[in-house]
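User: what does the whole thing look like in 3D?
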Amino acid sequence: MISRRDFLQTSMAAAALYGGSGFGNWGRLAAQQSLTQSKLLEFDTFGNVSLIHVTDIHAQLKPIFFREPEVNIGVGANRGHVPHVTGADFRKLYGINDGSASAYALSYNDFSALAKGYGRVGGLDRVATVVNHIRSERPDALLLDGGDTWHGSYTCHHTAGQDMVNVMNTLRPDAMTFHWEFTLGSARVNEIVENLPFAALGQNIFDSEWDEPTEMFPPYKFFETGGVKVAVIGQAFPYMPIANPGWMFPEYSFGIRDENMQAMVDEVRAQGAELVVCLSHNGFDVDKQMAGIVTGIDVILSGHTHDALPEPVLVGKTVIVASGSNGKFVSRIDLDVRYGQMMGFRHKLIPIFSDVITPDPEVAKVIDLQRAPYETKLNEVIGQTADDQTLFRRGNFNGTWDDLICNALIEEREADIALSPGVRWGPSILPGQDITREDIWNVTSMSYGEAYRTEMTGEFLHVVLEDVADNLFNPDPYYQQGGDMVRVGGLGYRIDINKPQGRRITEMTLLKTGEKIDPARTYSVAGWASVNEGTEGPKIWDIVENHIRKQGTVSLDPNNSVEVIGA
Amino acid sequence: MDFTRRNILVLGSGVFAAASFAGVPALASKTDDAIAAFTGGVGVIEGGIDLTAPEIAENGNTVPVAVSAPGAVSIMLLATGNPTPAVATFNFGSLAGSRRGSTRIRLAKTQDVVAIAKMEDGTFRRAGATVKVTIGGCGG
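Assistant: Here's the predicted 3D structure for the full assembly of 707 residues, as structure tokens:
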């Protein structure tokens, strides 16, 4: 039973806003009272403009469990700064009590115990209730979707994103930007976008042949709301063809293109924009860096790295809002815009406690309609977790879901070593819970899910680990791609995150023999989600399903195979 | 504007084989030599020239790069980590309306791309950008 609440909105007047320093103690200010829908939604409507931000939903139509990361290491200037603060340090920073609803929503400790008390999170029918409530207070509030919406579930895969398009359309977004959507293939993305009843934005989505802006994805759109001229500029995920298979969308080129972002900001300001909002899929550290380089953005709605922050971060005069993932949170930002300037704002990260927020009946109906043809397949129970086994993914290194997937790859594909992508999506499973086919698809679904088996030399394995490590731990955020470290099975290593690329990874060990990896020797490696065209193999979800079926009850050995130095 | 040199190659992608992290010290001196030949040994000042290049190459075989330096008579572009660093030199006549050029270059590995501009007043300007060539893979 949920017995208290410590979610509180943050607000700042103009004077304090541009003072630049910290906010109030978010959690401690909260009254100790029962968690109710009206308390979750309580917001003292402020100023004349409201923004509603959802991002990285990853096709989670229904409520899920989602454990936040235990390990989220910041490097360079971001070391020790949010979002690279977790667990007890995070709760201390925001004044969140152990065991509270906020602790459950925002940190990882006691996750399975708290999950049993506070229940599932998310569900787009609940999100709809929150959006409708905000619109009841501010009818022309802008709903902005940061992308990674049309990817990540069984039904999304089988409908090529149509289930998400149908459900999101009922929420009536005003604009959207993109990442995993492009892995549907450019023909399908174009088909959906042509019929989308809202703006598909990306100032950094270019034609790859001519390196020119596209007509399909305009850089920005103007909205008139509360008597204010608002420009929303889209920023798609910059490293799409590198982190995902570029051959699936060869007509498009991306990149950060901050010089073009500046040009777009200047252009919309010249056209009379009084408020400039960037709807971004850069990832949090990239957004922070961009906010320091590009001048004139009032608000960045930040997505991609799945961080949920109860208070915005200020860089100069730019307010950066991070709204979590998997439908777990909705951010509301009210702004006071006068004389062509943002004078102040009020913000609240609203956690979607699915047992507390009443589902919107209309949207619930649409969700059920999408799922109906697949219900039998979705609900089939494949196995269970043991009484002390939680399955989760999020974190810089292997989560337990990853360990299970790597074990499945090694056993089903008879390999020495398994590699699994360090993606940040994928809900969690509690101890003693049934694992359904839907649960497996929630952590594996993608349009390039072939599980390959190949031979790699020890030297090449080292190159792969070094390459991915630099995408995560390069001290310059512009060189980070926003994924976590590649997950490994059958392989141990030491990583010194502060070393340059090529020197971070040492002590690579083949776990089954305890021997050091020999650079010259060849090892059999099974993995999935290769960005290379023509990758062959059975689908990863079938491999994991077979493995769980054989296990019956899933119980994993603790994974101590990665030693992290310099965190 | 004309290309005095061009070594743009458009090759098929060999994604998993492209990366190499070994430094090749000899290339640094090739770059230094090229700059010295261009400037005649005159000191080079940072700034006054814009170099636009991606932080991470989407395809190392064809990386779009643009340079712009108002007041330049000539801009030299170098890929410091390539076996042959010289990429192109753009020359501008006195009536040239804008002093900018763009091309696509092949980068063998992660490296700095450098542009040196010879200005009308005889000074030299420099800009550089690191372009990462990666094997790619796992984006959140």
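In plain terms: The domain at 15-131 of chain B is CATH 2.60.40.2470 (Immunoglobulin-like). Chain B touches chain A through 23 residues (CB under 8 Å).
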